[in-house]
Design goal:
4-stranded antiparallel β-sheet; elongated
């Protein structure tokens, strides 16, 4: 009786794309030679591993879905075990319910991707509008900053004019006090000289 299998394996990421492809091709050939039928091959790609395997932190993930009899699984796993380019592998048997769930997930993912393309074109338009709005807002902000700078520059000029008059008054008052102090001192000196004469 044929069953549905999913075999996921991790290929050494240090290999060239051609070598990775040849490893995947030989795994598929092993399945077909032993009477299996390949339904789908998915190249998941390079991913970071959860833990290092043979001092490697990355791996190239491949998932092969096939239908076959149970005896083929041992032969496929033996091939994967002996191939030095394959770091890890896992073969799962999917029952009808799991298979149906997988197909629905795949269909939903395809719909989301199709919607994503539509929304990407919409989002590009939205981004263009947002960027022009941001540019306009930045220009308005610069104009406002220039106006406030001009107002600040004008205010100190007015203050300095009125401040100059106040400063002059203070200087005059200070000068008068200093002259009063000097005249007061001179009066004191003249009194001292008169006291010393007597």
């Amino acid at each position: 009786m044929k069953r549905f299998y999913e075999c996921t394996f991790i290929v050494n990421p240090g290999l060239d794309d051609a070598q990775i492809e040849s490893t995947v091709k030989t795994a598929e050939d092993t399945i077909v030679k032993n009477g299996g039928e390949i339904v789908n091959t998915e190249h998941i790609g390079r991913r970071r591993l959860a833990y290092p395997i043979a001092k490697k932190h990355n791996g190239f993930y491949v998932s092969v879905e096939f239908t076959a009899e149970g005896r083929i699984v041992d032969k496929v796993e033996r091939f994967l075990k002996l191939d030095e380019n394959v770091m890890r592998f896992l073969t799962l048997t999917l029952d009808d319910r799991e298979l149906e769930a997988k197909r629905t997930r795949t269909a939903f993912a395809a719909q989301d991707r199709a919607r994503g393309r539509d929304s990407q074109s919409d989002s590009k338009d939205d981004k263009k509008e947002e960027s022009t709005e941001k540019k306009e807002a930045a220009a308005e902000k610069k104009v406002d900053e220039k106006k406030t700078d001009e107002k600040k520059d004008a205010e100190p000029a007015e203050k300095s004019e009125s401040g100059d008059a106040e400063n002059e008054k203070k200087e005059k008052a200070a000068a008068e006090e200093s002259t009063d102090d000097e005249t007061g001192k001179s009066d004191d000196n003249s009194e001292k000289t008169e006291d010393s004469k007597e």
